[in-house]
Design goal:
By secondary structure, this protein is an alpha+beta fold. It is built from 4 helices and 5 strands, in the order H-H-H-E-E-H-E-E-E.
Length: 261
C-alpha cells in the first residue's frame, strides 16, 4: 500500500474531482433549466434530469472501481507476503538441516581422530614393551653365556690331578639349584618376587628393577641384615653371591629422584 500510495492519491483526487463536477453540474443544470423554463412555472426539462442521473451513476461506478482496485492490490500484496514468508521458512529449515549435518559430520571426524590416536598410542606402547622384553632376553642370554664360559674356565683351572683325586676321598656335592627366587622390596613399600637363573649376574636384577619401577642405573641392593651389594658386585652371578636358591633384597636408589608408576 505504501508503494502504490501515489496511485491511491490519484484515484482519490479523481474521485473528488468527479464529485465536485457532479455537484456543479446539477447546479448549472438547474440554473439552465430555470433559465430555460417558462416563466409561467412549467415542469423541468427531462434532459436535465437524465444528465444528473448519469453523473450520479458514473460517480458511484468510479468509487466502486477504486475500492475494488484497492482491495485487489491489498489481497495481492498479502498473498505475496505469505508466499515470501513460506519461502523464508523453507530456506531457514534447509539451512538448519545443513548446519546439523555439518555438526554431525564434524563430531564423527573428531571421534574417528580420537579413536585413531588411542589406537596409535596403544600400538606404540606395545611395541616399546616388546622391545624392552627383547632387550631383557638378549641381556639374559649374554649373561648366561658369560657365566657358562667363566664356570668352564674356572673348572678347567681348578680340576685336580688324577693322583690327587684318587688319594683324597670324594667330597659330597650338593645339587645346584635350577632357579633363584628373589623377594625384592622397593623404596615405595611395594614388593615383588621374581625368578632368575642362578647363572645370571646381579646386573640382570638391576635391569629388571629399572624396567619394573623406573629410576637410574645407580642402584644398590641390601641383603638383610646389613649386607650391601654395590656396583662392584653387578658382574657377579647370583649363585656366586650366595643368593640362591632364595633371598630377600632391598632396593636402594643412590642420589636419584624416585619415580613411581
Amino acid at each position: 500500500m505504501i508503494a502504490h500510495e501515489d496511485d491511491l492519491n490519484v484515484s482519490t483526487s479523481k474521485s473528488e474531482n468527479l464529485t465536485k463536477i457532479a455537484k456543479v453540474e446539477p447546479e448549472t443544470g438547474n440554473k439552465s433549466a430555470m433559465s430555460s423554463a417558462p416563466k409561467d412555472g412549467s415542469p423541468k426539462d427531462s434532459s436535465s434530469n437524465e444528465t444528473a442521473a448519469n453523473m450520479a451513476a458514473r460517480k458511484k461506478i468510479t468509487l466502486d472501481e477504486a475500492q475494488r482496485i484497492i482491495t485487489e492490490r491489498q489481497s495481492r500484496r498479502a498473498e505475496e507476503e505469505r508466499k515470501k514468508e513460506i519461502e523464508d521458512e523453507k530456506r531457514r529449515r534447509i539451512d538448519g538441516q545443513k548446519m546439523a549435518e555439518t555438526r554431525a559430520e564434524l563430531q564423527d571426524q573428531e571421534r574417528i581422530r580420537l579413536a585413531q590416536q588411542i589406537r596409535r598410542e596403544k600400538l606404540e606402547k606395545e611395541l616399546h614393551r616388546k622391545q624392552v622384553l627383547d632387550q631383557i632376553a638378549r641381556d639374559r642370554e649374554a649373561m648366561q653365556s658369560k657365566s657358562i664360559h667363566r664356570s668352564n674356565t674356572s673348572n678347567n683351572s681348578t680340576q685336580p690331578s688324577p693322583a690327587t683325586s684318587t688319594s683324597n676321598s670324594t667330597p659330597k656335592t650338593l645339587p645346584k639349584p635350577n632357579e633363584c627366587r628373589l623377594a625384592l622390596r622397593f623404596p615405595d613399600g611395594s614388593s615383588k618376587i621374581q625368578k632368575f637363573s642362578p647363572g645370571e649376574q646381579l646386573s640382570a636384577v638391576r635391569l629388571f628393577v629399572k624396567m619394573e619401577k623406573g629410576g637410574c642405573d645407580n642402584i644398590e641392593f641390601v641383603e638383610p641384615p646389613n649386607r650391601k651389594l654395590t656396583e662392584d658386585n653387578m658382574n657377579e652371578t647370583l649363585e656366586g653371591l650366595g643368593l640362591c636358591p632364595a633371598s630377600r633384597l632391598e632396593v636402594k636408589y643412590m642420589s636419584v629422584h624416585w619415580e613411581s608408576d
